[in-house]
């Protein structure tokens, strides 16, 4: 298959290998933030000082807890996400080389 890479493909810079690791961690943090937020909803609004305060503080707390969980290893799927992004970047580079 020859030709240029279609512009519709998302770009990923394979020149920065740590970018895949960081993206994997960010993905896992977003997932865990949603997970922790749902768990904290079961605590009820009174745990956060009332209904209005609960919405605001729960989101801050969920993000902080998720960040700490990721730094301590998280659920472990950030590594898989990083590997998939690396493979995508390498495949994209090989495709580009064949098109030249």
Q: What is the average per-residue confidence, as pLDDT, rounded to a whole number? A: 77
What's the multimeric state?
single chain
Low-confidence residue ranges: none
Structural class determined from secondary elements: mainly alpha
Strand content: under 5%
Helix content: 55-70%
Count helical runs. Answer: 3
**Given the C-alpha coordinates, what overall shape results?**
elongated
What are the secondary-structure elements, in order, as H or E? Answer: HHH
- Head-to-tail CA distance between termini: 11 Å
Q: How is this structure best described in words?
A:
The protein has 100 residues and is mainly α. The chain is built from three helices and no strands. The mean pLDDT is 77.
Q: Brief description of this entry?
A:
The protein is mostly helical and 100 residues long.
Keywords, separated by commas or semicolons:
100 residues; mainly alpha; 3 helices; 68% helix; 0% strand; elongated
Topology:
Blueprint: H1 17-41, H2 51-71, H3 78-99
């Amino acid at each position: 298959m020859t030709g240029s890479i279609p512009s519709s493909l998302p770009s990923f810079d394979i020149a920065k290998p740590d970018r895949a690791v960081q993206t994997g961690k960010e993905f896992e943090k977003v997932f865990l933030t949603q997970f922790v937020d749902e768990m904290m909803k079961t605590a009820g609004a009174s745990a956060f000082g009332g209904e209005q305060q609960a919405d605001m503080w729960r989101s801050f707390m969920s993000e902080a807890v998720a960040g700490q969980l990721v730094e301590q290893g998280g659920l472990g799927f950030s590594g898989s996400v990083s590997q998939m992004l690396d493979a995508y970047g390498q495949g994209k580079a090989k495709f580009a080389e064949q098109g030249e």
